[in-house]
Amino acid sequence: MRLILVMAIVLSVSDSAQAQDYKSNLESMIIGYIKPAFQEFASSTQSLPTAVETVCLDANETAGLEFQQVFSETVHDFGRIHFLRFGPLLDQDRLSRLAFLPDPRGIGSRQLRKLYANKDKDALNAAGLAKKSVAVQGLTALELIAFDKTGEVRLGKSDENSEFTCDYALAIAQNIHTIAIALEADWANPDGFKDILLTPGGNDARFQTSKEAIESVFNALVTGLIVVRDQDLLPALGTSEEKAKPRRFPFSRSGNGVIFLSSELQGIEQSLSSLNLQSLTPQDFMWIFDTLNFEFGNAQKILAQLSPPLRNSFGQGDSYKLVSVLAITVKSIRDTVALELAGALDLAGGFNALDGD
């Protein structure tokens, strides 16, 4: 009887230490990456409405370049949160409202044509727009109406729809900023999703243990890598160089394809680093972190060799080969994280949140 009691105490202490370890890792990521990333996104989106108003007031070269710069910064900062597919970003369909990706069937374009044909006045203010289809609310919709097919800023240029377009663009910009502010506030809220992650087993049934909480976060990073390869790269590569589809690169219309891809991968790498998983990893598996540093570095080197805009440059020189190698590199990173690292940590890391595999 005494032996059973001692074993129960030991197991209880072990479970408590494990939970504390995971809580520390999660807290490190929240403080070190998640909160700053959402703060940066809220900050960059704050400049978007003003940039829209300025270029619509006078579509001169300076105003056009300013809008282009602000849009690029917003896309960059969006890439750094795009993969955080849990909690606040999924609430109220915020992720799809910020950017309707992927869109292989051109749903966004069809919805926009319908909106313009009806001259839908409800879309000309942020509150009304928030009730519309997610495909016409965010950055992907703004890109379609603000840039022409060559990547030049057309917002503010005089045509039969210019007034409607400017009002609609302003509503989109305000809607994006409103969502960004809400995301920042949700992560800052001590009683919000942060508390659910850090204190599992309470009234919220999503996580019963600290391990379940860290697995959810870990799987979001794995899913992020799957998205980069399967949704961002492979559709653009097509089945061969002759059948490549550079328009399938995210944000390729505005010339921000490389920026978005780079920020996505950088964000995943920094998120993974902020979890401080080395403290939980057996010594025999510490090689994994050197491998990941090398692979992520290679991915960024490849991206640095691509010339934006990809919609125009893809297929020239070694660009197709480089993106093919990038897809292989991202697959390797994904396997290292989902198989090797997850195995070393005894985490369920191979789950794909996109399809439930």
Automatic annotation (TrEMBL):
Query: In its UniProt entry, what is this protein called?
Result: Imelysin family protein
Q: Note the Pfam families from the entry.
A: Peptidase_M75
* Signal sequence extent: 1-19
* Superkingdom of source: Bacteria
Primary subcellular site in the record, as a coarse category: other
Tell me where in or outside the cell this protein is found. Cell envelope
Is Membrane given among the entry's keywords? no
InterPro entries recorded for this chain? Imelysin-like, Imelysin-like_IPPA, Imelysin_sf
For this UniProt record, give its keywords in alphabetical order, as a comma-separated list: Signal
Q: Where is the Imelysin-like domain?
A: 36-325
